[in-house]
Amino acid sequence: MVFKGRAWKFGNDITTDHITPSRYMHLRSNLAELAKHTLEDLRPEFPSSVKLGDVIVAGKNFGAGSSREHAPTVIKMLGVSAIVAESFARIFYRNAINIGLPLLICDTSSIKDGDLIEVDLQGSTVRDLTNGVEMRFKPLSEEMLKILSEGGIVNYVKKYGDLKF
Amino acid sequence: MRKGELARSAMDQTLIEKILSRKCKRNVCAGEIVIVDGLDYVFTHDASGPLVLSKLNELGGEMKLDPNRVCVFIDHVVPSPSANISNDYRALKGFALGKGVRFHDQGCGVCHQLIAEHYASPGDIIIGSDSHTTMAGAFGAFATGMGASDVAIALKTGKTWLRVPESMKISIEGELPKGVFSKDVILKIIGMIGAEGANYKSMEFHGSAIRKMSMEGRMALTNMVVEAGAKCGVIPPDEETKRYLEEMGRGERYVEIESDEDANYSDEISIEADGLEPMVALPHNVDNVVPVGEVLGEKIDAVFFGSCTNGRIEDFKVIDDIIGGERIDSSIRAIATPASMNVYLRALRSGIIERLMSAGVVVTPPGCGLCIGVVGGIPADGEALLSTANRNFLGRAGNPKARIYLSSPATAAASALYGVITDPREVM
């Protein structure tokens, strides 16, 4: 799986309250509406301007906080192909893989907002096509790649009938 | 796994390795992936429940897990402020009654408090669709938060997969000084190690200060381990755990589980309790922690007493002791939300609720209240809120233009009295 898109650069400690603010909890059964508020407290233009294939690029501890699976879900719904960060909070990491959104861990310091990014999941590389820098991330495990290629763990369990790993 | 490793893990285990080994009926050690069959409790609530139900429906809607081990709580936004939300609640209630699972409706209290009052016991494996599920680790249980898909799969299959976490040993020796509480201890630790200082790990608490701490105090510690990124927090069950379980009517479920002396810890931290001070987390990160002395006199507009971190009877007793018969400062809007109906009734019968109301505090029905920021006193633009809850993220109390400070109930009560951040040691 290879994705290409523009980088949306964020800093450290982006929380699930930044991604899906608690005040929109009344939209929790209406994900399409909830998605319109994704990350709006940090970048109000994000939900309306993000394009299919774009990549979120961040620093440390992306996704800290709540267990709300809505957070990776609305990011994926808006067309984001992957999140590249220096580290992720545990629950967000598991949730994102579970809904089929790839998360990749590597040094993101050289990537600038708006750079054209290419992510190769099998090849374990993130290429910044704007500045020519290539970074390698720790390869995803076979189980994770399987879950991602099925489009999430619910599809995986539907297909295999159980947790097989 | 190599032979030597098996021998080591069989001999010397951390508390979380012990708990998971009991459940898996073999010796497991950090780093291993295990499938846990026989989950003790799986729960969801109004905030993530609708997504759990939709995932469960995608999986066919069948539930293999024993309904007695499943709980549904309506706690985040109560009483419901809108028809949309009420419709979600009706669907959750319909699911709960249809499947015969344990259902705690609007006003019963926060899920984690109800898990503590009714369910959690040493050795349990508990997963909930809420990050503060870690709180039940105070009982010597493995308890962690997961998302809707994982919870739906646990309901469907009765199982979950886990990576056995590495453990960070935190030893707190000595006596907490007057005016310093477990909330100050956990804020201090989060400030020391940072918001991802324990990412993926189990935080295991030891030491004489922990043994002297009540279960209610211990719960504030394990509640907030997730704010340092931890997967879980655990405290070895002891006489106090037994006392609490007996008080809650399930003393027979007490078992002793202890980590081995030579267990393998990824990190070890020692803290002298006697040297600790009241701490405050400044906006907008929980690890942005300073001693109260650094922010004395900062003007606040509102105070929130409550949440799964600090909305228990012990907390309300401390608040009542400090506020006493005084009136809170006229510039302050103070809101108290007991963590459960049980807490509310005990505070009511002992006169605390009446005294707080006479002091000018608004008391709301039990629930998550202002911590989640949908109902219950959303701050205005530019206002500062001092909260006893667990998160001060931007927008957390419902307004991204407000600032949130976190402290112990004692610091919050003293500050409500004076209208500015105040050291509780000066008024106790």
Keywords:
heterodimer; A: 165 residues; alpha/beta; Aconitase, domain 4; 7-stranded mixed sheet; 7 strands; 19% strand; globular; B: 428 residues; Aconitase, domain 3; Aconitase, Domain 2; 3 domains; 5-stranded parallel sheet; 18 strands; 33% helix; 18% strand; disordered N terminus
Across the major sheet of chain B, the strand order is: 4-3-2-5-6
CATH class of the largest domain in chain B: Alpha Beta
- Tell me, what is the CATH class of chain A? Alpha Beta
Q: What is the CATH topology assignment of the largest domain in chain B? A: Aconitase, domain 3
**Name of the CATH superfamily of the largest domain in chain B:** Aconitase, domain 3
Short précis:
With 165 residues, chain A is of the alpha/beta class. Chain A is built from seven helices and seven strands, in the order βαααβαβαββββαα.
Description:
The complex is a heterodimer of chains A (about 160) and B (about 425). Chain A has about 160 residues and is an alpha/beta fold. Chain A has a single domain, classed as Aconitase, domain 4 (Alpha-Beta Barrel). In chain A, about 30% of the residues lie in helices and about 20% in strands. Chain A is built from seven helices and seven strands; from the N terminus they run βαααβαβαββββαα. In chain A, strand 5 and strand 6 form a beta hairpin. The radius of gyration of chain A is 15 Å and the shape is globular. Chain B has about 425 residues and is α/β, with parallel strands linked by helices. In chain B, about 35% of the residues lie in helices and about 20% in strands. Chain B contains 15 helices and 18 strands. In chain B, the strands form five sheets. In chain B, strands 4-3-2-5-6 form a five-stranded parallel sheet. In chain B, strands 16-15-14-17-18 form a five-stranded parallel sheet. In chain B, strand 12 (about 280) and strand 13 form a beta hairpin. Classes of the chains: A alpha/beta (about 160), B alpha/beta (about 425). Chains A and B meet through helix 5 and helix 7 of A and helix 3, helix 4, helix 6 and strand 7 of B.
